[in-house]
Amino acid sequence: MPEVALFVTCLVDQFAPEAGIGAVRLLEAAGCRVVFPPGQTCCGQPAVNTGEPEAAAVLARRFVEVFEPYPAVVSPSGSCVAMVHHWYPQLLDGAWRDRARAVAERTHELSGYLDGIPGRPPVGARVPDTVTFHDACHGLRVLGAKEEPRRLLAEAGAELVEMAEPEICCGFGGTFAAKHPEMSVPMADDKLAQAAATGARWLVACDSGCLLHLAGRRRRTGTGPEPVHLAELLARGL
Q1: d(Cα 69, Cα 67) in Å, to the nearest integer?
Q2: Number of structural domains found in the chain
Q3: 11 with 225: CB under 8 angstroms?
Q4: What H or E segment, with its residue span, contains residue 73?
Q5: What is the DSSP annotation of 18-42?
Q6: DSSP 128-182
Q7: What pLDDT does residue 184 have?
Q8: d(CA 97, CA 90)
Q9: Is the confidence at residue 43, as pLDDT, over 80?
Q10: Are residues 100 and 137 in the same domain?
Q11: Quick one: angle between helices 94-105 and 53-67, nearest 10?
């Protein structure tokens, strides 16, 4: 039974606990033993976004210290995993950089980890609904995660109806949504309109930041299917 350390992320911890619970249930259904290192903190991405690399480096070193003992680290956030893979080697130097690279090699976004387990039996989730999928920027462009979540949805029996431009940004962009609402709001509304045009029951993504942004605009406009994290949706079907 492989051991997996769950990196739950700030947004999941504070705003979307169902995604974290769903991640645990899916990993356990896939035969993993899940542990939760209690010393974990933020990955440092907000600090990088706001021009504070020194603060981000402190958090990067903390992440390395906490997760270094584990053979695999899994997170229900492509954005945070992208931070570990892309930014840590740039923020740290010397021995810390080498340690960060080693930990990054063992750090995975949830759908990529589940899809990549050799010989894994189906987790047993059933989703008898139509869904459309939003490709979150960091998961897609930094990690290359595209087909993995779609294969998990197909395995669960979901009918995937692609929107016109699934790879276009929803407008969240971390602090971008707070700093530039005049741009982020129309981007979210366009994404919701595209999702509505598919007729899908659910708008699925693998990043809670995107989902919070889209859900907020959906509450205000009444447009589009309900946003839901892949982990939460699949776990409901177990």
Answers
A1: 6
A2: 2
A3: no
A4: strand 73-75
A5: HHHHHHHHHHHHTTPEEE--TT---
A6: -SEEEE---HHHHHTT--SHHHHHHHHHTT-EE---S-TTS--S-TTTHHHH-HH
A7: 87
A8: 8
A9: yes
A10: no
A11: 60
Tokens (6 digits) for 100 = 């960060």
Q: How many CB atoms lie within 10 A of CB 3?
A: 12
In this structure, the answer to whether residues 59 and 112 fall within a common structural domain is: yes
Burial of 188 (0-12, 13-18, 19+ CB in 10 A): buried
Q: Which amino acid is at 20?
A: G
Q: In this predicted structure, what is the pLDDT of residue 121?
A: 79
Residue where the block lists tokens 């059933």: 126
- Give the range of the structural domain holding residue 136, as residue numbers without chain letter: 130-236
CA nearest to 109, candidates 78, 82, 134, 143: 78
Q: Is residue 125 part of a domain?
A: no
Provide the CATH number for the domain around residue 177: 3.40.50
For 121-154, the pLDDT digits (tens) are 788 999 999 999 999 999 899 999 999 999 999 9
CA nearest to 200, candidates 164, 152, 173, 155: 164
Residue 68's SS3 state is coil
- How far lies 128's CA from each of 16, 47, 155, in Å? 23, 40, 11
CA distance 111 to 134: 14
Say if residue 7's pLDDT is above 90.
yes
